[in-house]
Amino acid sequence: QVQLVESGGGLVQAGGSLRLSCAASGNIFSINAMGWYRQAPGKERELVAAVTSGGNTNYGDSVKGRFTISRDNAKNTVYLQMNSLKPEDTAVYYCNVDLRPRYSSSAYRQWGQGTQVTVSS
Fold first, then answer.
1. Which element (helix H / strand E) includes 67?
2. Beta strands of the chain (E only): which ranges?
């Protein structure tokens, strides 16, 4: 089995910063990409940022210039540094990992349980 452990969510004032972490462990042969999605009540889940094992990154338009994604491939961990936070960033943030399990040739996407980020104004 594969486990994703998320941390770093919480309550912060507008203009503040938070750093989210997600560590993957378990039955993993390789990881193709890691990223963060978010979902606010009544809204669709949307991509925040993603990074491939080779270091290529992609950001949602609403967070470009404010958020930075990074990863430690040796630790199977992805980070999301969130600066200049706005109330509109309030959502549940979900870690997502595209991985290939051991003893399998097929990759799949594993989701974390989610961590709440609340930005007050």
1. strand 67-72
2. 2-7, 10-13, 18-26, 30-39, 46-52, 57-59, 67-72, 77-82, 91-100, 108-111, 115-120
Whole-number mean pLDDT of the chain? Answer: 97
Q: Kindly report, residue by residue over 48-84, the tens digit of the pLDDT.
A: 999 998 999 999 999 999 999 999 989 999 999 999 9
**Phi/psi at 64 (5° precision):** -60, 135
Q: Give the model's pLDDT for residue 52.
A: 95
For residue 34, count CB atoms less than 10 angstroms from its CB and return exposed for 0-12, middle for 13-18, buried for 19 or more: buried
CA-CA distance, 88 to 61, in Å (whole number)?
13
Contact 92, 20 (CB under 8 A): no
Q: Which of 121, 116, 110, 98 is nearest to 8 (CA)?
A: 116
Q: pLDDT at position 87, please?
A: 98
Please tell me the distance from the alpha carbon of residue 13 to that of residue 17, in angstroms, as a whole number.
8
Report d(CA 57, CA 65) in Å as an integer. 13
